[in-house]
Amino acid sequence: xxxxxxxxxxxxxxKYYHIFNRAIGNEKLFVDETDYIYFLSKFxxxxxxxxDLIAYCLIPNHFHFFVRILDPKEICKNLRLISIDSxxxxxxxxxxxxxxxxxxTCNLRHNRKGKxxxxxxxxxxxxxxxxxxxxxxxxxxxxxxxxxxxxxxDWKFSSYAAYLSQNNxxxxxxxxxxxxxxxxxxxxxxxxxxxxxxxxxYLKE
Length: 205
Known about the structure:
Blueprint: E1 16-22, H1 33-46, E2 51-59, E3 62-69, H2 72-79, H3 87-110, E4 122-126, H4 132-140, H5 142-145, H6 160-164, H7 173-180, H8 183-192
Antiparallel strand pairs: 1-3, 1-4, 2-3
């Protein structure tokens, strides 16, 4: 069963997390296409060295990620470090740098000041791999859930299209497809929109 409570989960190496957050008040995280691109570029710079990205979706006022935190040796290699004194602090700082950097960019672009994200950002530890397929499906269908499109495949700012492509991607496609068995099952699961019983325990909103 998943760990789920009001406390903030510590992000630990080699574990899987559903990470999500929203803008404060009625603000938008993404005003135009450039914002979406900047956000993903910041994620690539600050978070990809410490985590595998398995799925994501960005919509105007919030985002979802499904990630696997890398093991300390991989993190050291990616960041060109000899060793890590505290994996917890380094991982925490990587996400903090990510959000702070995007906020500064967004404030400059849109002539705004102050905080942009709710704090702390939400993270849910996913321990049962039978639920991973439901998490990925939920993330990819999020724009449909919010009435932004009539079909999830039409939303531009999610990782769904990356699973259908043969092009290079920052998504760990191989890891994601392992959960489904193959691409055919991935497509079928998304089409049928099935979810494991009790999956709502992995969500906070």
